[in-house]
């Protein structure tokens, strides 16, 4: 038997290999995860809700052959994982980060969770999230703040911040995330892990009141591109309750990532023409994308026209907040955090004409993106415009000389990509002089997850940062919080 500390340091792919060969059991892994959580989560608050008894019961039934299993390439073979607290897990407290649902215990799991469990995943914990996933700093009135393992004075990002922090600290091997405006990609960047926003429909979810929404998706998070590919295999597949869901591909995403096939031509933009970017982040990302040249790729300054993306996204997001949270706003307005109230009220102020113009603008952007990919294999840019900041700073209000208007305005680099419906991944690409992680965002062709994962794995191997995690939480350093 491998020691618990050694187990938590292994990649998800390596642990699944041990599981398949019978060299470690799911129960041993649950115990190893529980020990690591106990040792590290006091400093982080990444996984505030544990469900270890449920996990052990699930693992025992899995080991006894009492549960249906799938022999597909994505089968997790009993691997423990964490689920974001926006997604229901049957019989487990699920709050959505809101005091309104502080005691909510669902009877049924989300479709994504059902799929992961059918493919051998074992849920051990719920990861912290801001209220209803709104915002890119993980804090709420139910559980409080989640802190960054690289410097516990800093934010881990959001809204999948608990998942990212848990992965970076080695509490779990895989974790789920969701992404509307950058909620997978921002925390991955801030915690030096990997987060993939897949194409709409790639991961079935729900059942939802708005099953045709294409702005918000569920996706995998891990410590390496290979681990994320493994998890995507275990998440993908068609479900009739999700009308957008896609069938699993014939070739596994793991196999695609394992090719480490570099792109031939990469378009790079430090700001997509729409966002202020911290100078150090700009320099680190520019140097990182140039390393594709070591694999024979051509890297050029190029990107589609995103000039109307900020207005388009804010309008469509506002309309979506009214559709999704409008009834709750009418019943419990004063119990919602101010940013959510603002977003709903912004949505209520919109006219039908303005929403219609935003829909047409999104369509035009998509066609520009398709045209871009007739020349380039990838679009690259920073995953966040700033490095991690003080956990007490709720959102970024200024970058250089640019003043930002609201709590999502600083996320332009990610929410502009959301509008395109193209898959996007954040991979670690470096650190600032004071040790704060920086991530590079790579964007692939529509429904092009396989090629995107292969390219990301190629660059990951060249840069060589994936072994940097997991880490023990590091106490705050004043130099990194100024």
In short:
This protein is an alpha+beta fold.
Keywords:
alpha+beta; disordered C terminus; eight-stranded mixed beta sheet; globular; single chain; 15 helices; 482 residues; Amidase signature (AS) enzymes; three-stranded mixed beta sheet
Question: What radius of gyration results from the CA coordinates?
Answer: 21 Å
CATH class: Alpha Beta
**Strand portion, in percent?**
15-25%
Uncertain parts: 478-482
> Using DSSP, what is the number of strands?
17
How many helical stretches?
Answer: 15
Distance between the termini: 45 Å
Q: Label the CATH architecture.
A: Alpha-Beta Complex
Number of domains: 1
CATH level-4 homologous superfamily: Amidase signature (AS) domain
Task: Spell out the blueprint of helices and strands.
Blueprint: H1 4-9, H2 12-20, H3 26-44, E1 49-50, H4 52-63, E2 79-84, H5 111-118, E3 121-127, E4 139-140, E5 144-145, E6 147-148, E7 151-155, H6 161-168, E8 175-179, H7 185-191, E9 194-197, E10 217-222, H8 225-235, H9 253-258, E11 265-268, H10 279-290, E12 298-301, H11 309-332, H12 338-348, H13 352-372, E13 378-382, E14 398-399, E15 402-403, H14 412-418, E16 424-431, E17 437-443, H15 449-463
Helix pairs in contact: 3-4, 6-7, 11-12, 11-13
Explained architecture:
The longest helix has 24 residues, at 309-332. This protein has 482 residues and is α+β, with helices and mostly antiparallel strands. It has helices at residues 4-9, 12-20, 26-44, 52-63, 111-118, 161-168, 185-191, 225-235, 253-258, 279-290, 309-332, 338-348, 352-372, 412-418, 449-463; strands spanning 49-50, 79-84, 121-127, 139-140, 144-145, 147-148, 151-155, 175-179, 194-197, 217-222, 265-268, 298-301, 378-382, 398-399, 402-403, 424-431, 437-443. The strands form five sheets. It has an eight-stranded mixed β-sheet, sandwiched between helices. 37% of the residues lie in helices and 15% in strands.
